[in-house]
Amino acid sequence: MNDIIKLTEFTPKHQHRAYVNSAVRFHTPCTKEERLAAAIKAGWNVFQVPSKFTVGDFLSDSGTTTPTIEQLAASLLGDEAYGTNWGYEQLLEQFEKTFGITLTGKNPEWEIFLFHQCRAAEHALFTQIGCGKTGLIIPSNGHFDTTHANVEMNGIEALDIPSKKDINFQGNLDTLKLSHLADKWVPLVYCTITNNTMAGQPVSLKNMRDISRYCKVIKKPFFLDACRFAENAWFIKKYESPELSIPEIVHKTFELCDGFTISLKKDGLANMGGALCVKKGTVLFDEYPNILDNLRDHQICTEAHPSYGGMSGRDIMIVVEGLKTVIRQEYLDSRILQVKAFGDYLVELGIPVVQPFGGHAVYLDVDKFFEGTTMRREDFGGIALSALLLLNGPRVCELGAFAFGTFDPKTGKESFPPFNYVRIAIPRNKYEIEDLFYTADCIKNLYDKRDLIPRAVCVYGKEKTLRHFKARFELEERK
Ligand code: F0G
């Protein structure tokens, strides 16, 4: 283990401000040996390492946002009534303003179902879509891991058909491949903005318009996974429609769809919350006439009263404020340009990253990182790299050969996804650029020593579903 510690010894150019940064000041300083003991106890699984051992937690941008003063103030006004709390009314109005949909008044066009987070909304939706049916396929530009699992657990195939043709919008869906699918098996078309699975790349308005138009032709509903809708709008403004404001772009986006799921833990700028919104009277109801009632029953049975859906009144108020802030140009500029500054510095250090950068994370290209070394995909270099980074403090996440790969116990073989990334997801309103540069310095140290990085051997859980959450590893010398 001394050899492993040695690999992480270096003098960084930048210092992490963890102990002066209010967002992380409750963390007690710890030694590298203590971190090593914690990592071994966790089987080198980054999800299972207690956060107190991290200095710079980039495991996820989800639910990790530091609330603004406005959000904190609003939370004090949270109404904890069981039925139709005051915050719910605010929330409906804010959803109307932010997304340009109608939820109140005499004949609102849309219906909303609140959940404690997005995967509960996905579970509700796909339980209804899959119910009693076989052979269905849901095409998407990229299903997120839990979305994929929720789709497949309901007996539906989750099919990713991304397109990288547009350099500025590499999160797009391949509409040609979409048109080759037999419509009768497709209950809906799904599009994730931004495309988290494909390195957080944005989707163009043109692409969404094309999908929407095609869906109208084949009479199928078009749904968005809208977790990072505001960041996506920022890219549309930059590369496609500079004449439009962010709120206008958001409205134009949501005009195109028949429904959407959203995690309010991302562009809701909240620590919890999710929703499913469904437009009434669309083609969805041809196949699923009772879906609204069924969804409501599902929500009441699993989350509680429709007006709070698993969220407290305080959390609802935090979302109300979050949905105002997130569509402000100056907020999005500071957010996305911080991610870019971090990515640019990694490039300056010569580290292979996916470019252009997306809105919420920088993705290391693991295959290129280990190019020219003896590290093979089945050695899970991304897992080993993330494991070693932990010893310097930063926590990042492998989203590649291990997370999206599968092990077949019959053949004893691994199969791999087309990409192999480690994601450094940047929490919103939390870190300063110095903190990110420190993380980059730590990555550069390991890049310089890439020949010496051990392989990660999965000693538990390689055959399991969602295995990256459950697995344990040992670090061993490469063959
Ligand atoms: N869809 C996308 C595109 C996501 O990125 C996530 C979560 C979800 C759905 C599920 O939302 O967490 O509220 O249930 N992504 C987080 C991440 C966990 O780290 O990227 P949730």
How are the strands of the largest sheet arranged? 1-7-6-5-4
Residue-averaged pLDDT: 95
Query: What is the CATH C level class of the largest domain, in words?
Result: Alpha Beta
Number of separate domains:
2
CATH homologous superfamily caption of the largest domain: Type I PLP-dependent aspartate aminotransferase-like (Major domain)
Q: What hetero molecules are bound to the protein chains?
A: ligand F0G
Large-scale geometry: globular
Remind me, CATH topology of the largest domain?
Aspartate Aminotransferase, domain 2
Helix content: 25-40%
> What's the CATH architecture name of the largest domain?
3-Layer(aba) Sandwich
Tally the helices. Answer: 18
Provide structural commentary:
The chain has 479 residues and is an alpha/beta fold. 38% of the residues lie in helices and 13% in strands. The chain folds into two domains: 2-61 and 329-476, Aspartate Aminotransferase, domain 1; 69-325, 3-Layer(aba) Sandwich (Aspartate Aminotransferase, domain 2), CATH 3.40.640.10. Strand 4, helix 8 (205-218) and strand 5 form a beta-alpha-beta unit. The longest helix has 20 residues, at 329-348. It starts with a helix and ends with a strand. Ligand F0G is lined by residues 60, 62, 117-119, 144, 146-147, 192, 196, 225, 227, 263, 265, 274, 425. The site of ligand F0G has 16 residues, from helix 5 and helix 6.
